[in-house]
Structures are given as structure tokens and as C-alpha cells.
Amino acid sequence: MLIGIIANITKENVFEVVSSFIAKLKKEKVHYLLTKSIIENNGKCSLKAGEDFISEDNEIYEKSDLIISIGGDGTMLATAYKAHIYDKPVLGLNLGKLGFLVETDVTQMDSVIDILKKKKYTIEERMVLTGICIGHQTGELIAVNDLVIEKGGWPKMIELTVWVDDEYVTTFSADGLIIATPTGSTGYSLSTGGPIVAPTTKAITLSPISPHSLTVKPIVLSSEQVIKLKAFSPHKNVQVSCDGQRVYKFPPPLEIEIRKSDRSLKLIKTSLTTYFETLRKKLLWGIDVRVNKLNSEGKE
Fold first, then answer.
1. 91 CA to centre of own chain
2. 35 within 8 A of 53, measured Cβ to Cβ
3. pLDDT for 30-41, tens place per residue?
């Protein structure tokens, strides 16, 4: 087994964490690859250039059997995007704040290594969205969490028209629209009033951003349905962002077609945590703020 290690080098203590992790891997005789950026920016850390790193990040994804992402949710999203392209499974070690998307915490390194070495894990397939901007040469847009069509730098609302499977749905004015996967339902979509969707559910959620009508609400569609949007704006650009990380600007009107990708994202799942446990602990879902706690059975 060959493990590729991707780390967010802007995180505090990240090099110490990576050093500790690879020391444990060496002790267990588990092979690994590091990116050049980790070596070049390690400062006073014990990491040294040698046979245990590859110069380009893409080679990590090409050659590794699985990918470990060390950082927070943003690091995990960036790693997952690349892992999806190379069809490699990924597991996250949280070194950030919330860490909702990551499977484990850096304090669980020993358990993680033991699980990986003994292959006591499962692969959970998560839906990924793709988008094609009609009339533009941007190629296929990919989103693990969400595709967001928004007003960008324009201070006023934009007009959005929605079709599902070529059937007209509605036209409304808003700051934008979030098209989210079940994985992304606990992100930006949730903050705009969208529902929490269990990660393996075959569904796509549409959540308007500050709509200029009380009747425009989030809607849940089948993952097999194709969504077409047309965005009008008096501004020079309409903005499309993928996972809040890859941002594109297009002159209006913009037409974009969004559907489920033919390839899923592969996440490594361990017995160290569960989805609903993560909901309770990190989003405080189901917790009565008057009591501020739940027992192990979810009861007051």
C-alpha cells in the first residue's frame, strides 16, 4: 500500500503533525509519498528531501493507492477534487476548526494507520456534480459540495430561470442559487435554509440565496435529473463557483447545465466516527440549547 500525503502548509503546527505521522508510518513499515511543497516549507521540521517525496502534486494522485488530507474542510475539498479526477480514495485528518468533512482527528493517527494497514475500512461513494457553461470553452466544471451561481461583484440581485429535465420550473430574483450534493448540504446550502441530506442519498438540492420572494424555497430533486439555469444581470459578469474554491466569471446571460457526474468521489470510512455523531458533535444537530447536551442515546 502506498499512501499519498497532502497537507495544508498554512496551518499552524502542520509540519510537526506531518513529521509525527510519517514517523508512525515508517515504524509500521507503511510506504508513503510527500509533496515537494511540504519539504520546501518545513522550516525547522525534521522533514528532509529524499526518496519519500514526489516533486509534483499530480504525481501523488497518480501513484498513490489512497490519499490522506491533513488540514480542515477546505483542504479536504481541494484534495477530494483532485482525488475524484484520479479516481483515488481519500481520508481526512482534521487540523482545522470545524472539520465536518474529514473522517478523523490528528489525535487518532495511531488508529488511522492501524485501520489502513489492516484494511479495516470501507469505501463510501459520494455524488459529484458537473456543470457545462453553454457557449463557453471552460470545459467541465466539477463540484464535490456545490455549484453556486451568484451575482458576484454586482450589489443588486440577478434573475434566474430554472428548468428541470427541460421542463420550466420558475423564474425569480435573488443573490444567487446553490446547487448542492448531499455532501454539500451541510455547507453553504444549509446556511441559506436548505435541508440536511444524508450523504449517500441520491438527491440534488437547489437553495436560493436571499430570494426576493417568500414563496421561493429550497427544493430537493432526484440525482438523475438534469438542471438547466439561465442567469441575467445588468452587471458585466455572472459568477460561478465550485466548492467556493474555483471561481469563474461569465458575461450575462449565462446558461449552464448541471447534472450528476458519472464518476463518484471515494471516501474512506472508518469505525472511528459516524455521520450522525458528527452532526451532533460539530453542528450541534438535535441538541436542545436550553440543556446544551445529549446523552449517548440522544436523550436528555
1. 12
2. yes
3. 999 988 877 777
CB atoms within 10 A of CB 166: 7
Predicted confidence (pLDDT) at residue 259 exceeds the cutoff of 90: yes
Q: Which three cell numbers stand for residue 151?
A: 451575482
| pLDDT tens readout for residues 7-26 | 988 888 888 899 899 999 99
Separation CA 300–CA 296 (nearest Å): 10
Which of 100, 103, 105, 73 has the alpha carbon at shortest distance from 90? Answer: 103
212 close to 172: Cβ distance less than 8 angstroms:
yes
Q: What pTM was estimated for this model as a whole?
A: 0.90
Prior bond of 89 cis (ω within 30°): no
203: confidence class by pLDDT, cuts 50, 70, 90:
very high
Catalytically annotated residues? 73
Query: Parallel, antiparallel, or unpaired: how do β-strands 176-180 and 66-71 relate?
Result: unpaired
Q: Give the pLDDT mean for 262-281.
A: 92
**What does residue 195 show for φ and ψ, rounded to 5 degrees?**
-80, 155
